[in-house]
Write a structure and sequence with these properties.
With 259 residues, this protein is of the alpha/beta class. It has a domain at 7-147 and 172-197 and 248-255: Rossmann fold. It has helices at 7-12, 18-24, 30-40, 57-64, 76-86, 124-133, 152-164, 168-171, 178-181, 203-211, 222-238, and strands at 47-51, 68-72, 92-95, 109-115, 134-147, 191-201, 244-255. The protein is globular and about 55 Å long.
């Protein structure tokens, strides 16, 4: 799999979406973290590099599990948001770095994670960097929340994105399938687990969830106005007591990086 966008592009795409990303992106189920702990055997004090950490959504969960976490994030606005959220925790630090050039020392971490991020840098250079910074027998964990497009609400929402958001088909992480990730892992080391996850969104939350995506049209565009109107109609059709149930399948890909 080749990178879907130039690295410099992916590092800047979220600069104007930081607040919406922080407020409206879904978290991750506790069952995922429990599985990660069980599979790796790591405990409190283990060192984790969270690559493409963004505003620190998954980083915070790793800290809550007792890990020492280095949030590697090249986007200044996103990294600053993580610092504001998590900076008082002595087991947290952030660095200005990318997947291919983390700036971390060789053999310095027990686990590399990438939550909702690996599709931006799915390339040989990133995997080589992960392998370099991992200690012997260390693992990488790739995590995504994937919308359940089999459900009627999600199917209609997906259709609106395809109609009004021209970049959606190009950068959508849901294009990545299991077989496309297998080559990045050492043979026989990969395990895949799936978990249910749900967001409850009012209309402001639904709109913020859309605006947090890199493919959302510019707010002063005709496409955004049309998409906004279509979202209002969708919300009216599906909301119960003023909320939409946004369903995800959270996927965990865990194993050693390919040599």
């Amino acid at each position: 799999m080749k990178p879907q966008n130039p690295v410099t592009d992916s590092r800047e795409r979220f600069s104007d979406r930081v607040d919406d990303y922080r407020r409206y992106r879904p978290g991750y189920p506790q069952a995922l973290l429990d599985a990660l702990l069980a599979r790796t055997g790591l405990g409190a004090g283990a060192r984790v590099a969270d690559i493409g950490a963004g505003t620190g959504i998954f980083t915070g969960m790793l800290l809550d599990a007792g890990f020492d976490v280095i949030a590697v994030e090249p986007n200044t606005g996103m990294r600053n948001a993580a610092d504001r959220l998590l900076g008082n925790n002595p087991r947290f630090r952030s660095v200005d770095g990318g997947a291919e050039d983390s700036g971390l020392a060789s053999a310095s971490v027990d686990l590399v994670t990438a939550a909702q991020a690996f599709h931006w840098f799915a390339n040989d250079a990133a995997v080589a960097e992960f392998r370099r910074i991992l200690r012997p027998r260390g693992n990488m964990a790739l995590v995504w929340n994937r919308r359940q497009v089999e459900e009627p609400l999600q199917r209609e929402y997906d259709g609106l994105l395809r109609e009004y958001a021209p970049e959606y088909g190009r950068v959508n992480h849901m294009n990545i399938e299991d077989a496309g990730l297998e080559p990045f892992f050492a043979p026989a080391s990969l395990s895949i687990e799936r978990f249910d996850n749900v967001q409850q969104l009012d209309f402001d939350g639904l709109l913020g969830r859309l605006r947090s995506a890199s493919y959302c049209p510019a707010e002063n565009s005709a496409a955004y106005s049309a998409l906004h109107a279509a979202l209002e109609a969708l919300f009216v059709r599906y909301a119960i007591d003023g909320k939409l149930r946004f369903s995800y399948q959270t996927r965990l890909y865990l194993g050693r990086p390919r040599a």
